Amino acid sequence: EIVLTQSPDFQSVTPKEKVTITCRASQSIGSNLHWYQQKPDQSPKLLIKYASQSISGVPSRFSGSGSGTDFTLTINTLEAEDAAAYYCHQSSRLPQTFGPGTKVEIK
Amino acid sequence: EVQLVESGGGLVQPGGSLRLSCVVSGFTFSSYAMNWVRQAPGRGLEWVSVISGNSGSTYYADSVKGRFTISRDNSKNTLYLQMNSLRAGDTAVYYCAGANNYYDKIDYWGQGILVTVSS
Hints:
The structure holds 2 protein chains of 2 kinds.
Chain A lengths: L3 E4 L2 E4 L5 E7 L7 E6 L6 E5 L3 E2 L7 E6 L2 E6 L8 E7 L6 E2 L3 E5 L1
Parallel strand pairs in A: 2-11
Antiparallel strand pairs in A: 1-3, 3-8, 4-5, 4-9, 5-6, 7-8, 9-10, 9-11
Chain B lengths: L2 E5 L2 E3 L5 E8 L7 E7 L5 E7 L6 E3 L7 E6 L4 E6 L8 E8 L6 E4 L3 E5 L2
Parallel strand pairs in B: 2-11
Antiparallel strand pairs in B: 1-3, 3-8, 4-5, 4-9, 5-6, 7-8, 9-10, 9-11
């Protein structure tokens, strides 16, 4: 099973700041890494696909990068509505796995 | 509009069984691989199982293998999860989730249904 680790676990950030979340895979997964946002009491929402590809309707302040084992989700100029948990997800091999999540709080 | 609506959750005793259903609309159900993903209270997401569009392939997480069975009825646009020998550790919100294939991102998520395993 491919294990995904995320850092940090938690981040408290002021609006307009930049947020960087990392996801590391226990073995190479190419670009088969996706990011989701989950707000309290809501279902997850796809933010970035295949490490760096944007999703229609997702604000351009969200971007992704990386390949192989190391990946990054960046939120530029954080807004209050971005308070949520963020999860990475690998679909390279079964079983699919998710990272443990990063909770972003707005100061 | 895409909709995935889960039902069948609730409170069940340890060792008991439950069957979840998910009715899908707004996309071509038979062309999509369908997953179940769960989330224990206050915890992260855990992938549970996936079934191919034609039901030809199914896969399970080790934590549920031998106890859970995924199936689908494309004539009814419905996905199922039969859960047997339930344990306290199976307590979670269960999400029905659609993807182009079982090596792909998850495009569509249901609202989730709570399953509580407790005596």
